[in-house]
Amino acid sequence: MDLWLKLLAFGFAFLDTAMFVTGQATSPTQGTNMTEESSAVPPRDPLLARTTASSLASISDRENDSSEAKPPSSAGTATVEVSPGPEDNHSTTDGTGAPGMKTTPLTLPADTATSTVAIPNPVHSSSPAASPPRISNSTTRDNASDGPTTFTAPSSLTTSASIFSTAALSTIAPTTPKPSCEEKYMDIPVNYTYTYNENSKTYSVMFASDVQCDSQDCAKMLQNLQECEHRTVNLSHSSCVPPFKQILLETPPDPTKFKLEDCVQPEKANTSLCLRWKNSGNFSCDEGKLTYSFQCAGKNSTPIRRVFPYDGKPIQSTKEKEFGVENLYPQHTYTCSSQVFYNHRAFANESKTIETDFASPGTPQDIECSNKSSQEGHVTWKPPNSVFHKFFLCYRSDGDPECVTLNESLTSYDLKQLKPYTTYHVTLHASVKGKAERNGTKAKCDFRTNAAAPSKVRNIHVSRKTDNSMTVTCTPPTDLNGPPGNYVLKSLIGDSEKKTYFNDTCNFLVKDLSYSTEYTFQVYYKNGQFHGAPESASHSTSYNSHALIIFLIFLIIVTSIALLVVLYKIYDLHKKRSSNLDE
């Protein structure tokens, strides 16, 4: 009976020697299913003989009511376990159409140390026809990518009457075909490392995976590369097959040639910031492949970005070397970082901490102006509630203003050498000095100095109008130094004051003076409170011309009468003489 069963199993094995069954080995559990996959195998494969022998031995054991595989007597054995699949507790059917069966690990002799022989358990509801044994051909896997090779050869040998079940034949699981190197390293990251010392500035290239470059060690081959150097390499590995992955390496420019600088205009530095990459040297790289990223953020504020993160593909890029932000808070600290990319790979980065400039100071409070005298004024104020470094105080009357710089600690100031009775306009503002000098809003006040004595009249002139009258004129004084007033004229003979005259203008007519007398005239301006210094001029009156004319007329008349009397006497004498002659 034992011999007949062995011959029957041997016959079934030869009926289907061209097929392999691939099983998914799981934990040794009775009554479960197994997945199978078949492929062609040579009829006279030495593995078949070993598999058949093992199967026959298993059949013999089962005839002796043995439920588990007996360990071999040989000392050198190896066991390889196959991890359970995701459907470990469910019956499955593979592409061969065999009903679900589960394999049980078996320890093989030393000559099959890399294989796991699975003994199939009887199928609970098998078909009347027994499944023929199937053997799967083996393919060696690379230990770097696919792990150790697994051999599994389950088979069910059940008759229509369920008289017996055969032991499973060994199955060799085929490995996944090796991918092409071009496919495997399609998106391999490339890292450029910059080395700087006194003698050289070079790049080295490292790959994220352990690959070879043109059958050489990449780490040794891709050393001491210069900036902007182009090199094409073929990436290969024992875990992949040709075609190899061809990659063009383009080293970035020298990062020491790039410097991040502050480009904000001083006038805008209090509410804006500006960063700019400056290239300090020439290079042969394609500048069209340069992109830049910027990011700035202040304390408790949302980051301000113009950035694309490095993940091999830019999300957003900018060709602009300059980055500016406006409408910021004055005197706030912002932390900014920036990177320069070449072919979407960062090669230069720098961070800066920027503090926006001072804000314009506030307005001085409670400013007051007053006069201290005719030539002095006094200004007081309270400082603004903001940062400032000094005050600017300006004052003017009618002309250009005069300005003085005051210490930030002052709260009052005296104005000196002012003009009397003059209105002054005063302005005061605080100033802060940062990247630019910023002035606050001006505070204003006005005051007028006290009155003072006016200056002298000018260009006094005296002229004789008649024999005993004079005209006195002058030019108004330069500074009246007070409210409107009048002019005063005094006439003097020697030191004796004779008469005083008043007029709104400096134009006097002095009458009824003494004839042929020298007079001194003093003129000054009086502004209502003070009179100025007098200005003097002297002049003499003439003789009385009317009296002289009358005297001359009287003298002529008297002379004429006397002459007539003389003529009459002569006539009378001549008449008497003629009478005497006649007699």
Automatic annotation (TrEMBL):
The yes or no answer to whether the keyword Transmembrane is present is yes
Please give the InterPro entries that the UniProt record associates with this protein: ECM_Regulatory_Proteins, FN3_dom, FN3_sf, Ig-like_fold, PTP_recept_N, Ptprc
Regions of biased composition (Polar residues) lie at 27-38, 139-156
SUPFAM superfamilies from the xrefs? Fibronectin type III
Which positions fall inside the Fibronectin type-III domain? 363-452, 456-545
Per the record, the GO terms for biological process are: T cell receptor signaling pathway
Q: What is its EC number?
A: 3.1.3.48
Q: Which Gene3D superfamilies match?
A: Immunoglobulins
Q: Which Gene Ontology molecular function entries are recorded, alphabetically?
A: protein tyrosine phosphatase activity
Instruction: Locate the transmembrane regions by residue number.
Output: 547-568
Keywords, comma-separated and alphabetical: Hydrolase, Membrane, Repeat, Signal, Transmembrane, Transmembrane helix
Q: So which residues are the signal peptide here? A: 1-23
> From start to end residue, where is composition biased (Low complexity)?
103-138
- Region (Disordered): which ranges? 27-156
Q: Which PANTHER family match?
A: FIBRONECTIN TYPE-III DOMAIN-CONTAINING PROTEIN, TENASCIN
The protein's name is CD45 antigen isoform 1
What is the source species? Sus scrofa
Name of the gene = CD45
